[in-house]
Amino acid sequence: MNLDTQIKEFRDTFYNVKTEVQKRIVGQDQIVEGVLLCLLANGHALIEGIPGLGKTQLIRTLSEALDLSFKPIHFTPDMMPSDITGTTFLVEDDQGRKQFEFQRGPIFAQLILADEINRATPRTQSALLEAMQDRTVTVGRASHSLEEPFCVLATQNPLEMEGTYPLPEAQLDRFLFKLLIEFPEEDEILEILRRTTTDTKISIEKVTNTETLNNMRTLVPQIIIAEHVERYIIQLVRATHPDSENAPEIVKQYVHLGAGIRSIQAITLTAKIQAILDERYNVAFEDIDSVLLPALRHRIILNFEGQGERISPDTIVTEVSNSIPTDIPKTD
Question: What is the DSSP code string of 86-121?
Answer without folding.
Answer: EEEEEEE-TTS-EEEEEEE-TTSSSEEEEETGGGS-
